[in-house]
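notes to self, project folder thing:

trying the whole complex as one job this time. last attempt i did each chain seperately and stitching them together was a nightmare. two parts in total, labels are on each line so i dont mix them up again. if this works i'll redo the older ones the same way
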Amino acid sequence: MHARDIMDTRFHTLRPGQSIAEAVKMFHTASTEEQKKIFGLMVTDEQNRLVGMLSMYDILLFVRPKHAGLWGEMEDLPLEGAFDELLERVKAIRVSDIMTTDVVTIGPITHVMVIADLMIKRHIRRLPVVEGREIVGIVYISDLFNHLLKKFF
Amino acid sequence: MLVKEAMRRQVVQLPVDAPITAGINHLLKFKVNAVLITDSGQRPAGVVSKTDLIGAFYAQLPIDTPLGDIMIRPPLTCYPDDPIESALDRMRHRGVHRLYVTGAEAATMIGTLSYTDVVALLYRYCRACPKSTSRRNAATEPGDEGWRLRVQEVMTSSVMSFPEGAALAQVMEGLMAYRFGAVLICSGRGAARGVISKTDLIRAYHHGIRLEAAADSIMTAPVVAWDQGAFLWEAIQHMFLKDVQRLFVHAGDPLQIIGVLSLSDAARVRSGSCRACMPSRFMTME
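result (full assembly):
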């Protein structure tokens, strides 16, 4: 059993120059159209080559104040509206500014056991499937899980 | 107080052959001011800071130039058990804004120490102090306001400003010559309209904006300005809450800026936000 047998060939992508607001909308659109919760999207250039991945985690990392740890320990800080200015700052940021650029990919004939191993060792929840320079699909951890454990369903 | 109490256990790093574009991506994504550069054997080789990237932008280096070409070597280090006082002295003498922290193996960086981290630690101490006005029971113990530092005592009173139409190249020349972290962009009448920080400049570089572009096309607006009479602890708290590295200061009219307070200025004062423990905290460490 290989990547091509469990990969999803329907996927949505982002462009590096898009705004974060557009990316957030795309997460929503992709989730609706693919009928599953999408937490990460592939970023492609004009030739449809993979140039990065943008996850909800990347966006949260950006909107979380760097010293947020401080107010876990201080309960009486004035947190009202604390996020407003940070969200305002997101407007100047593009997908390429905060996407992950060193993306781990697999090929169509990568074996599911190798995929499971990669996902566990590198804490990855989704792996683009690339053939030559072309993106042919994506394997989500849920696809892998459902495939490997289907006998218990 | 020791380095290990204030340091961040996260080291943002890239290999020498990674392009400038990846360096900017990492600085923006992880909100750090510098990236550690490692050689082919994954050993620390140098550092690329926002300032170095602005130099590259100014020199119009292509965005795919390897970081190894612009890095400053070697990375300066300290140990987790060093007193913060000596780490701060080293930063001041060497003119850097951060040190990497090494453990038992010299080639392994286990964290970083920046001025901001030091202020965060001091802020924690100040909050825990019985003299703190920021604590809820403060209202019941009035009378020692005079101990507390105010923004005007710590701020830097020189601020550089440029007109809205100034070219980015001109702004960069000013920033680099005077080692400011940010400059003001003012209207013809001198009213503060926006700010250009090093972060705004490296983002412009990443977005392919040209050196001739006008300052107001990339500035962050409006300017966050505080009254000079505000307490230092309030200003520091605001900087942490809002994730900014500096605040501009006014003397009544928020559009007329008279100074700037940065987290590095706050680190320089060292005793935290009040005079009560000026003699006791860092001075005894030497």
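what i see at first glance: Chain B touches chain A at residues 21-22, 24-25, 28-31, 116, 120, 123-124, 127, 134-136, 200, 203, 206-207, 220, 237, 240-243 (CB under 8 Å).
need to look closer tmrw
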